[in-house]
Amino acid sequence: MAKPAKLPPQNQEAEQSVLGSLLIDKNAIIQVADVLAPEDFYHPQNGIIYETVMRLFEKRQPIDIMTVSNDLKEKGSLKDVGGSTYLSKLVDSVPSATNVGYYAKLVKEKKVLRDLIHASADISEKAFDTSGDLEETLDEIEQRIFAISQRSVPQRFIHIKEELPKAYERFEKMHSGEKPLGGLSTGFPGLDQILSGLRGSDMLVVGARPSLGKTSFVLELWTA
Length: 224
Known about the structure:
GO terms for molecular function: 5'-3' DNA helicase activity; ATP binding; DNA binding; hydrolase activity. Residues 177-224 form the SF4 helicase domain. This is DNA 5'-3' helicase. The protein is mainly alpha-helical. The longest helix has 29 residues, at 100-128. Helix 1 packs across helix 6. The chain is flat. Helices cover 60% and strands 0% of the residues.
């Protein structure tokens, strides 16, 4: 007897809790706008509703069950999402919007897992194809996984007031002849002088033609 197909990772309750929070608290969208995209929702109707909320937010219009319902109706999508009944269910699904950030994190985690499943299938297919160049294949795989990891981590903006004192201190030390590392050593003294070390806030891109040692270089950094 064939085993039933597994459902991809998803969390309907978390998706509904996010949307319910957005409908009952006009400020909740601020906590999730930079975290979630419509395609992060597994259930299509939830993605459509979130897209509607984002559209209203970008237009600086009120966000509540009435405005969302009207916008969906104008776009001809209200029936597709389950009508006003489903919107009311979303509102009733959460007592408050206090935990909307946590709900959004759960939704995002499931999306990342789905992306990894899709990526692993593609990686397996590429690995069976022995006609391609190994370095190019590794580069493609690295880029695919890197893209997923970048999407999984929301960017946290830091006010300039927090960073200026640290920057001034580094500049003063450099001016006096010191070369302080602002982060971890790369293992390459010359590169440390240029970058002042590796910091957690940095996004570094290693670029070169195929087969020139990008993978080996990154592995050296990893073990430094």
